[in-house]
Design a protein that fits this description.
Strand order of the largest sheet: 6-3-2-1-7-8
Shape: elongated
Radius of gyration: 18 Å
CATH architecture: Roll
Number of strands: 10
Strand content: 35-45%
Number of domains: 1
Length: 109
């Protein structure tokens, strides 16, 4: 289980985009791609086989996972995340969930 998952709202903690927020689009090995953050201009050649037009395009590049924090909706700020097990209900195994370290609130229910 990962502390940051696809679709989570995160805030960038370091670098040129410090303070920017966005949703996680993709998770790579040790990096994340965030919507609207770390955008670069790429000079793309046309490829008629794939139907791509040429020109300058803007795209999001990956950031290291250690440079982002999950946004706590209660405080509106970045927060550290931990794991804990919820008690088993009606014969089910205990569930492992993420929680915010500052207030102990569960991230995913």
């Amino acid at each position: 289980m990962q502390k940051i998952r696809k679709g989570d709202l995160v805030v960038v903690t370091t670098g040129k985009d410090k303070g920017k927020r966005g949703a996680v689009l993709r998770i790579l090995e040790s990096k994340v791609v965030i919507e609207g953050v770390n955008r670069v201009k790429k000079h793309q050649r046309p490829n008629p086989v794939k139907g791509q037009t040429g020109g300058i395009i803007e795209k999001e590049m990956p950031l290291d996972r250690s440079n982002v924090m999950l946004v706590n909706p209660a405080t509106g700020k970045g927060d550290r995340v931990g794991f804990k097990f919820l008690e088993a209900q009606a014969g089910n195994a205990p569930r492992k969930v993420r929680f915010f370290k500052s207030n102990g609130e569960v991230v995913d229910v």
